[in-house]
Design brief:
Elements: H1 2-38, H2 47-59, H3 63-81, H4 84-107, H5 117-137, H6 145-155, H7 160-174, H8 176-179, H9 182-203, E1 209-215, H10 219-230, E2 234-240, E3 247-256, H11 260-270, E4 275-281
Antiparallel strand pairs: 1-3, 1-4, 2-3
Helix pairs in contact: 1-4, 1-5, 2-3, 2-7, 3-4, 5-9, 6-7, 7-9, 10-11
């Protein structure tokens, strides 16, 4: 029994370590896009980095300090709603980005692309959107409007990119008050759309649902964990094996596609020998999914 617990603890440790490494990678990607391509070319972006950029252009106040102060307030909100585990990873992400930003600014003077604002816009947005997506895939966040998006995404079936898109339009529009250049604002909108698109592609958070059929001797434990950890319903179905003629319990589960990895992890931790079938479904309607809409 102790060896099983040790193996499970080792798996959890490796999983958490991998998550933190991916979060760090995502933040480095974001720092590259923000400080090397967007900020030097006066290209506005969204979220808290967008606010920090506006403050920097207006006053010269270092972007990393503005970013850190705003996120401190938002993290207090996330701590109450999203829980300590999410906040720990978000704090780590905020710390990595806060540290990486001045490092890239120091070693890379100016922009790698000069006099080509559109190319800088595309590359910067791609790095930023990809970085956020990598962080979200590891259950982390860059903070700011990502925290707001994660809170809304927890209770509503809205893609992360769409939530961030709505929040960031106001931030980018406000950059005109400092830059006084509508062309830069338009480039900011391009940054926003590209980063939102890349984000959705990375985290695969479109409205897609999957169904699971799970056969395991530990069906009670697996079912309870799915209920508790994912707040998803589990239906037990009585079955009989054709070859063995033994009675079996089969679990039927409907979940969001983004939750698939969590379900597989959960099953592997409890019963690595479980038989699992996963398939995509066209649509799921009811509590916790889409509402039934009939014209």
């Amino acid at each position: 029994m102790s060896s099983i617990l040790t193996f499970t603890n080792r798996q959890q440790l490796l999983r958490e370590t991998r998550d933190y490494l991916f979060i760090a990678l995502g933040m480095i990607m974001y720092a590259v896009g923000w400080t090397i391509f967007l900020l030097p070319n006066n290209l506005p972006s969204g979220a808290v980095p967008g606010i920090a950029s506006v403050v920097y252009w207006a006053t010269g106040f270092p972007v990393q300090y503005t970013y850190l102060l705003i996120n401190f307030a938002l993290l207090l909100l996330a701590l109450k709603i999203l829980g300590l585990k999410f906040c720990l990873k978000t704090i780590f992400a905020v710390g990595v980005l806060t540290f990486a930003t001045p490092v890239f600014q120091h070693f890379v003077k100016g922009s790698l692309i000069n006099d080509q604002p559109f190319m800088a816009c595309v590359l910067g947005a791609s790095f930023c959107g990809g970085g956020i997506g990598v962080a979200f895939s590891a259950n982390g966040s860059t903070g700011g409007t990502d925290i707001i998006a994660a809170i809304i995404n927890k209770y509503r079936d809205i893609t992360l990119g769409r939530v961030i898109l709505i929040c960031d339009v106001i931030i980018i529009s406000s950059s005109y008050l400092v830059l006084h250049d509508w062309e830069k604002v338009v480039y900011g909108y391009v940054v926003l759309f590209i980063s939102s698109f890349v984000l959705d592609q990375v985290v695969n958070s479109a409205r897609q649902s999957v169904q699971f059929f799970i056969i395991s001797q530990k069906y009670e434990e697996i079912g309870q964990r799915i209920n508790k950890d994912l707040h998803r319903g589990v239906t037990f179905i009585d079955g009989v094996g054709c070859y063995t003629h033994n009675n079996v319990k089969m679990m039927f589960v409907l979940a969001k596609k983004r939750e698939s990895n969590t379900i597989f992890r959960l099953i592997k931790d409890i019963d690595p020998n479980a038989f699992v079938s996963q398939s995509a479904v066209i649509g799921v309607f009811g509590e916790g999914f889409d509402k039934i809409k009939v014209k």
